[in-house]
Amino acid sequence: MATHKQGDVVLEAQKSKVKPPRMFKVLLLNDDYTPMDFVVMVLQKFFSMTREQATQVMLKVHREGMGVCGIFPKDVAATKVEQVSSYARQHQHPLACVMEEN
Which comes out higher in pLDDT, residue 18 or 28? Predict the structure, then answer.
């Protein structure tokens, strides 16, 4: 630690401990109406997945009821959820996108 003398007072630099931000999973939920191709396209567009990665996540959503799209800090996760939800509504699909703490 560095010390600085200012008049008769000695100042010492304090190290602050910064915790990493809490992380949140962004999840897609299965429904019976959204086409599989639309889900793959959403994963590619909003989560920068390759077609193969997006297909694997889409199949997980289809078979298990939900799939993880990515893990992000809270503000990024919230933005992704809003983008996907808005895009799905614009295209008249009930695709649900949610976030939960990791």
Answer: 28
> Which ranges of 1-102 would DSSP assign to H, the alpha helix?
36-47, 51-64, 74-90
Please list, in sequence order, all residues whose beta carbon lies within 8 angstroms of the beta carbon of residue 99, skipping any fewer than 6 positions away.
Answer: 24, 25, 26, 27, 74, 77, 78, 80, 81
Q: What are the pLDDT digits (tens) for 46-62?
A: 999 999 999 999 999 99
Q: Closest Cα partner for 60 from 28, 32, 87?
A: 28
**pTM of the complete model:** 0.81
Phi, psi (rounded to 5 degrees) for 86: -65, -45
With contact defined as beta carbons under 8 Å apart, do 85 and 97 qualify? yes
Measured CA to CA, the distance from residue 84 to residue 28 in angstroms comes to 9
More confident residue, 52 or 16: 52
